[in-house]
Design brief:
This protein has one helix at 2-164. The protein is built from 1 helix and no strands. The chain is 99% helix and 0% strand. By secondary structure, the chain is an all-alpha fold.
Length: 165
């Protein structure tokens, strides 16, 4: 029985040895798995770090976009004010141009009326002068006829005087 116990113990020890070898294999596999997990975790940490960097960059980009958007809104508001001012200026210019156009038309009409009145006066003066000139021409013709008769009479008188002397 001792021998049986020793033999049983030997058998148990061989079995334990096999179990220990199996456990060593399992531990080695576990160590490899842990090492692989450590490597995966390092890789994951790198990925997380890169992701955090990308998220930070995105936040900066979003911040920049928000600033650009705010700047654009301010520019649009300023352009809107400028456009409204320009519209008001254009309306004022249109009103002034319209008033100037109407005043120019009135003045133009006054000039035309004045020119027509002056033309009428000049026409009357020309007619009057023409009549006066025609009368002077007629008077001149009569005067020339009278002078011509007197000249002929004087020539006749000179000839008679020259014959008598």
């Amino acid at each position: 029985t001792l021998q049986q116990d020793v033999s049983s113990m030997k058998s148990d020890m061989v079995s334990m040895k096999g179990d220990i070898e199996s456990m060593k294999g399992d531990i080695l596999t576990l160590q490899q798995d842990v090492s692989s997990m450590k490597s995966d975790m390092v890789s994951m940490k790198g990925d997380i770090s890169a992701l955090q960097h990308d998220v930070g960059a995105m936040k900066n980009n979003i911040s920049t976009l928000e600033q650009n958007y705010d700047s654009l809104q301010a520019q649009v508001a300023q352009n809107t004010l400028l456009l409204e001012g320009t519209r008001k200026d254009i309306k004022i210019i249109i009103e002034v141009q319209k008033a100037n156009f109407e005043q120019n038309q009135r003045e133009h009409q006054e000039i035309i009326t004045t020119m027509n009145n002056r033309a009428d006066i000049i026409e009357l003066a020309v007619k009057s002068t023409s009549t006066t000139v025609n009368e002077i021409i007629e008077d001149n013709k009569s005067f020339n006829e009278i002078l011509g008769r007197h000249e002929r009479s004087m020539e006749t008188f000179k000839r008679k005087l020259a014959k008598t002397l």
